[in-house]
Amino acid sequence: MSGEGVDPEAARRVADEARRVLATNRRQGVSDWNGMRYDFVCPSPTHYPFQWFWDSSFHAIALLQVDAGLAKQELRCLMQGAQPDGYIAHMLLWDTSSNPEWFTPEACIRLDHPHFTGTIQPPVVARSLERIYDATHDAAFVRELFPRIVAFMRWLDRVRDVDRDGLVTIIQPDESGLDASPKYDREMQVRSQPPSDTLPDWRRGMHRLFDVYAKKTHEEQAKLDVFSFEDVMMNTIYADAWRALARLARAIGLEGADEYEQRYRRTLDALMAKCWDDRRGLFWDLSGAREDQVRVLTFTSLFPLVLPDLDRAVAARLVNEHLLNEQEFWLTYPIPSVAASEPSFDPGWLTKTTWRGPTWLNVNWYLYWGLRQHGFRDVARELARRTVEMQAKGGIREFYDPLTAAGQGATSFGWSTLVLDLIAAER
Ligand code: GLC
Q: Which residues are near ligand 1 (CB < 6 Å)?
């Protein structure tokens, strides 16, 4: 570790730019389909004009460094998407009058309704609510959103834990938010590898799934087993959400804390029992009803570090054997989405699909806090230092080349403003 902290001048420039992105990406209006007012931060004005579920949850955390009122607004708007059965879609298309490109087959989205998708994303929202409570102590705000978040968690449990083992499944790659991660290549029949473009293979895979799911209920889709991943990142966030709900319920005197806590521990135990590889010292996703471990090394394999009750010795192995391994994840600008040791590692984005090597801010943000809570304060500080340096070079972009810090993908990307939280934590 260099021992130096975040460079104050770089931090100032990056923070100014991040605040500018949060302000210019804000979208406000009244939807013409349900008359609801919307007011949220879109992920990118040029690339992602709508409201996305986990993006908004991250935006709310970044907005706490700007104005807690806006952080609350972001989640209030998101929770307007909650359906009577608990389901919440991964995209809310508040205003569809522009952006026709999103309604072509190339966009690869599946709508359940003209204005929201039939796809989920990880329930980061519970962690965002916890952070808002920690910053504001606004119990009334927690009470307002809590029932809809619990209802979504119960939906996940009811509809997506088909084998009742405490792990929920995603039924297409977009549902983890890790769209074209190479860990899904076998199931998606993506054969091409860098330097070729993997987008055509991936799109064909998506449309195959959409065809199979067409006209089926969520319950029926989950039982088809054409693509079912018990994804370690998704389940870590799911466990973390039950943990956050238990803590919030205790803090403000709501019922259910013990049950939520049990659910948290049950999912953590299932991750240890089914996904942990004691020989390699990391976690693997499970594919299909047979629960085959998918041995493609991505940041997901380290993700349970996010959970405070992960066994200390397991946490130490994740950090010392993998996160700090220069052949895998400890590159110049960590943490790459795919380990450098994988044949699919594509730092320069030659494959034109996402999550195949570049570094993303939401991953660094989660693992930064995971490192801190497991006592790796110096590693966390160094990760924050390199993250700020990367963004000082590359701008507020969607993702970054882990070798050069070149910014890639969408410009003015919303959750890359999570750096505001890292800077505040390092102050
Ligand atoms: C990309 C990301 C996904 C994100 C979306 C909007 O598809 O892979 O995780 O939610 O963009 O930013």
A: 43, 48, 52, 54-55, 177, 179, 354
